[in-house]
Amino acid sequence: MVRRRQSVVRDAEVVTPRSSNPEPERIRLVRYFFALPEPLSLPDGHQAVMYVGDRDGSESRDDDPLVSVIFHQVDAAAGRADAAMDALRQTIDRAEGTPRSTKKWSSPKTPTPWTVVEAVTQWESPDEIPDEDVNRPTHWSPRADPFSRCLDATRRVVRAYRQATETPYGIPAYVRIPSPTLVFQADGIREAIELDGRPAEVVRPDGTWSGPDVMLLEHTNFPDPLRGRDFSADVEVRFVHWLGEQERGNPLNLWRERFIEARRAHDVLGEEGQAIVLANTSCEVMLDTILALLLWEEGVTVEDAVPVFEEGKTLRRVSKELAPRLGGNWSTEDGIVADWYRSAYRLRHRIVHGGYAPTARQASEAIEAAAGLQRSVMDRIAARRITYKRSALMTLAEEGLRRRELWSGQIKRFFEEVGPTEPPWRASFTDYHRALVAALSP
Known about the structure:
The protein is of the alpha+beta class. It has 14 helices and eight strands. Helix content is 46%, strand content 16%.
């Protein structure tokens, strides 16, 4: 890699220490300008030039495209701090009981630093985008899409920067790049030269740049904060339910939070490794909590339940404890459990212990597999609703059983006639689970 301070356009060429094209070749160049979500303290105009291929750690290939990235440091007129201060001012002026100011509120108009990346690469890509990913740009590989490889080159520079400075800077991801991006195109030439007595490759524009075109990125993560669904009557009912369960410390809620955090890591932050770890954690928490729930309903004491959770890992408890109780296919060779095992459970180990950096596609597959496992477990509980009536009512409730057209017969009569005569199930199981966790703690 050769680093140069000059812009590829002002200098009219991109040079690297490798040559794979003995004869001059006419190519189409594309030039992107996009802002980073956080300013990067590299010198203004810092340039890095590199070949960019697959992101899975495989060896480079002769036809990996060349990318030049230049980091520009600029100041914008205002920033989020000013906007936050203005929001506070408006709220205080209308809040009940706060003194009204007799003078106009003011907030400092501090320029906000931004880092803008100027990236150049060839328009044509050596690989094609798979048909199933045409509408999922976060899955496009650097060898299949020019913007993806420009972003990948940027990520490499940022990784080196944060290691050198030990700054907890977020790795730029597709979902975090502010939209839109500006795009220019020009004809170019790629040819072989000698650089310091060694073969090298030079790529240069041959004509004027056309544009700019505006490219909207396929995400909803704009620089403004993420906003949730409208607070409809349906959302309000669910909100009241989940707030109540949260305040009661219901252990059946724990896995849901990890799953939501996994989706945020993938959809909002672009932290794919964290997304996979959290997706798998949500499943392991769910499986162990469900097993504890079944043992509680069976009347197994906390003392007798402790060895079940102390011996072996999650997969052993799945095969030895959950599968016999809930039935169905729990194989790690094929089926829904196997999808989770391959896409989340095993990949999590590779990420945590091997330092593997997964792709957005892998994170998406892990989240989908985790959701599939969660639905499958609930379906198995529904199938065993007569054996585990309390567990079914505490996890699926009337709504879930109605949705599966199972709200009738024994389970409905049990809920109406027996349930009201017993101590509150949720409080009882919460106490049981807390005692179990305490007994397992060192």
